[in-house]
Structure formats: structure tokens, C-alpha cells
Amino acid sequence: MSGETYEVFAVRYGYMDRRASENFLGGCACDGPMPIDYFVWVVRSAARTVVVDTGFGPAEGVRRGRSVLNSVGTGLAVLGVDPARVDDVLLTHLHYDHAGNLGLFPRARFHLQERELQFVVGRYMADPTTASAYAAEEIVDAVRLVHAGRVRFPAEDEELFPGLSVHLVGGHTGGTQVVRVATARGPLVLASDAVHFYANLARRHVFAVTHDPDHLLEMYDRRLPALVDDPADIVPGHDPLVLARYPAARADLEGDVALLSAGRLAPTADVGVPA
């Protein structure tokens, strides 16, 4: 990757209480509390600020029984990011919790894999289970943005900006992409829903909502580790442990915003799966 480096922030805006047995495809013998956190991410250098994913809004949270701690706009504002001034948003995929709030970014260009858009308007949406992870109005919003000339479809592997690239991995959905970011301490990968929890990688057991589990396991074995120097720098998309493994962006943001580019805190073998 080129010489430009970034600060990377994980911004927690919501959560959901779940059982461990609900979080793995086919269930698991483990049980006990294993909640899900909801994040958006900010990638910032001296030259640019890029937002990765746009979360869901309060109404969608209520409809789905998710708890909203802060609006996404409020979460970004604590980092000095005004959504109305953001020029580039990367959408890892179009599930309801990653592609809501598109209207918060009135001047942004959205970077989305073409395969994901094809997936969400094609035959797979005839399956109610697959379709249930999407919000139809948000898909319509995304299509409108395409017609407005505000969606860019990157290549399967493309450096969008110096030091910031996207990589199509699929598996979770038809067109899920991950984001590789150069930091001062080396590359890290925002895996989004390709990896929900650290436990997915440690146990080689994918999340319960997965379009192509065999393909995703191949990504775990080869593709994702090849993008980083240390597999510990693959950052899962929903794990509360992210906020424990990385320092807070500021003292007053403990438990809300983590600074991923600062380096991990004391290493731990805990992957958050109750016995």
C-alpha cells in the first residue's frame, strides 16, 4: 500500500442482547449471553475523511428490537465529522444495519460492490429469510442513488485512495466487501459482517446469517489473513470485545468509540463465547 496512513475509529451506536447459541450457523453447544454491538467506522487522514457503513436509524431499531444508544449522526459528531460534508462513504453491503441513514450524507459518493446490488434486486430476495436482513426502502434509496450518479462500483480489489482499498469477499451476502486501511502501525482490515465476532475466526464457525458459509470459511483460511501482517488486525463487525481490545478515542468516549489505529491493548485469548 502507498505511504498515506489513517486513523481508524469504531463508533458504537447500538446493541442487541443475544444468546451465544443464536450467533452461529446451526447453533452451538455453547450458551449464555453473547450480545451484538452495532458500529460504523471513520477512516481519517490529513487529506480525507471516509465513513464506512451508515448503520440503522431509531425507527428501524424499534421495528427489529435493537437498542439505539446514539444516532449515527451524533456518533460521528463526537469525532468532529459532519455527515453533510462527507464526500465518500464505503458500504460493505446493504443489510439494514449497514446501509440505513443514506440521506444523512447528501453530497457523498457511495462505494458499493456491483455484485451486492445485483444480489439484492435478484432472485435471492424471493427467499423470505434472506430478504429479512434487508430493508426494502433502503434498497430503493440505494437504487435512486445509482440513478443520481452517486454510486461508484469498485473492482473486486481496488485501492480507492492512497492506503485505503476494498476487497470483495462475499460469503455473508452475495457482494460483501471488506476495507483494508494503512495505519502507522501497519494494515488493518475492517471486516464488517464477513466476521461478526472474533469467535468466528477462532472457531471457524460462521455467523447464523450467512449466504455461502463454505466460501466464507475459505476467506477465513486464506483471503483475510493475506490482507494483514497479523490476523489479530482483522476487526470484526459486531463484537463488543472490539471496545475492550482497543483504546478509547478519548477518555470521555470509553465504551463508545475505539481508536483502532492506536494499537491493541493487552492481548487476550478471550473470544467472548460463554462456556
Task: Report on this structure.
- There is one protein chain.
- 21% of the residues lie in helices and 23% in strands.
- It is an alpha/beta fold and 275 residues long.
- Strands 1, 2, 3, 4, 5, 6, 7 and 13 form an eight-stranded mixed beta sheet that branches. Strands 8-9-10-11-12 form a five-stranded mixed beta sheet, with no helix packed on it.
- A hairpin with an 8-residue loop joins strand 9 and strand 10.
Q: Which bin fits the share of residues in helices?
A: 10-25%
Q: Provide the low-confidence segments as ranges.
A: none
Mind summarizing the main beta sheet?
8 strands, mixed
Give the number of helices: 8
Tell me the radius of gyration.
Answer: 17 Å
Structural class: alpha/beta
Mean pLDDT: 95
Order of secondary-structure elements: EEEHEHEEHHHEEEEEHHEHE
Draw up the topology in text.
Elements: E1 7-16, E2 36-44, E3 49-52, H1 58-64, E4 67-68, H2 72-77, E5 88-90, E6 109-111, H3 114-120, H4 128-131, H5 136-147, E7 151-152, E8 157-161, E9 164-168, E10 177-183, E11 186-192, H6 198-203, H7 213-223, E12 234-236, H8 242-245, E13 257-259
Parallel strand pairs: 3-5, 5-6, 6-7, 11-12
Antiparallel strand pairs: 1-2, 1-4, 1-13, 2-3, 8-9, 9-10, 10-11
